[in-house]
Amino acid sequence: MGRRIRVRGQVQGVGFRPFVxxxxxxxxxxxxxxxxxxxxxxxVSALSEGFEAALRAxxxxxxxxxxxxxxxVIAAPCAGFxxxxxxxxxxxxxxxxxxxxxxxxxxxxxxxxxxxxxAFTNCTHCGPRFTILTRLPYDRAQTTMAAFDLCPACxxxxxxxxxxxxxxxxxxxxxxxxxxxxxxxxxxxAIEAAAALLRxxxxxxIKGLGGFHLACDATDPAAIAQLRSRKHxxxxxxxxxxxxxxxxxxxxxxxxxxALLKDPAAPIVLLAKTPGLxxxxxxxxATLGWMLPYTPLHHLLLAAVGRPLVMTSGNLSxxxxxxxxxxxxxxxxxxxxxxxxxxxEIARRLDDSVERITPHGPMVLRRARGRVPATLPxxxxxxxxxxxGYGGQMKAxxxxxxxxxxxxxxxxxxxxxxLTWEAFLQADRDYAALFDHTPxxxxxxLHPGFRATQHAEGRGLPVIPVQHHHAHLAACLGENLWPADxxxxxxxxxxxxxxxxxxxxxxxxxxxxxxxxxxxxxxxxPAPLVGGDAAQAEPWRNALVRLDAAGLAELADRLFPEAPxxxxxxxxxxxxxxxxxxxxxxxxDAVAAILGLYxxxxxxxxxxxMRLEALAGPPEPxxxxxxxxxxxxxxxxxxxxxxxxxxxxxxxxSARFHAGLAEAFATRARTLVETGAARAVALTxxxxxxxxxxxxxxxxLQGVPVLIHRATPANDGSLALGQVxxxxxxxxxx
Length: 734
Ligand SMILES: [Zn+2]
Ligand SMILES: [Zn+2]
Hints:
By secondary structure, this protein is an alpha/beta fold.
């Protein structure tokens, strides 16, 4: 009796078939393995429990085995064990995310073999994937490596199931693969020339996996200042790259943080700042974003420089990252003194992912390179149908459902920017073509002004509009595989802004609901958002209206003597360009402004709130907030201002603010669970990127089942996911 074994998960393009081949030989089994639309299919001549256990236990580093199903079959006799071609054309439907250079390849580039010093070394366990893919199935001819013919040595490795490079589609060597050069710097090889310039304080544009970076010496304040002034980027934190041994001289990551840094996804990981590096890298922030070198090019360059490098995205202000050589020369010439580039095209722009480790596990802030196009399983009870979710306006990303999987696409950015909008439209076509996706309906935000909403309405398909914070709640439920009939959850949604069904802007909510619907159980008392968008950029505007509402108008006059207060108050009174908003994000802005952290304009979204988090001292009892379903922050502001006047340190005030906000929402959510109205609490919305707030809320929810984001962002980057889940729930009931 033989066995037929189905392996599901991320098992294509990751060396799974040669792994099975080697395993079968080890266990003395005959039979075959092949890829098909559902994953990997194996037939072996006999039952071997050891073999089946090893499929999961010893799977290759980039594989993710979701499920193994095995049944007895009468196996056709085979002489040996063979790797068969895929079934029907188009059967291979998966591609893995891009993966950081594996230890074996790093050893090779620093060794003496034929790939010594070769910047494009890769194997089945590492290298570019999604960023070079032009079409599925994932095969060299359908990647940007198609232009490079294999030399005999590479061809032999490619064809040998015992080799680490068996069917490694981007396989390359100095004889046959892409070439590296440096424009604008003289002397030695490309790496040496770029390294010398970096050590001398210059800025180099570097072509990476998903786009160009701008790099400079992270230990050199003058180099950093020069890059900041050239990029007109006064304060937004720069990410850094260094090999682990150099990183450890400048940061003290925990074991979990080191594991995340070394993950094949190689995300930027936010690590607590330690003294030593220039403050200008991330002014006023408590953390610095670090990543390890993730391509051979990075490894070689970092080894030659011997210092940590700033690696910030190579783009014009507000625009997406540059990916083409010609585009880089044109757009980055004003920033970079030299260009380190190569002739392997980038098929798809992917920013670096940004993540952090909190006491409660990993947290994703930006989901892109290394994480996409990995899928999430569809929660039980939702129909397996094809829907596209178009997300929101900020931190745009798409989501597709198909074959029981949810594909949350990569971070695109802010859709008001023309080129990002173009990238959004391209991503829509791209994902649909790649995954042969033909949606029967599309989902989008309620906000009619969002470009993604307008795009959804123009598709000529049934449109399912979804309230912004309901989508946040559903995304959190979906990531946690909350079943469709799992019952209602109390969603604490602390966020920037989203349009509510009542026409006001929401953002500090407790929603009681699930995929099928919701009610607004409690919310922050609204305040006018005077000047609309201006209120987002200028925290003092939020402080003024909150102080006025708390009977502290005189204090507001003293705190903001230069501001056009009368104008603002008139607008607030008449409601002219002053929509009401219950946003929690704006509450953070208001407090930051009162503490003098941000009297004028923020230079990027969330800046004031991030500073407030960075400032928070040891835990304190929280400031009081009103009782009832309208959570009135007036008592909070009154107490905070008293403390402020008494000269208490801002660290204490920030700690008390975080605790007070957490207390108000956690108490109400806990009550909903304890009275049986909700089965669990879900924490979602952009404010939950704040690890302090997350911790304060979780502390107050001990003993209650709580769902949080770990693999998807709590911010608007997950809206599309929530929209798709809600749309599926609606389709099911029609
Ligand atoms: Zn490798
Ligand atoms: Zn070769």
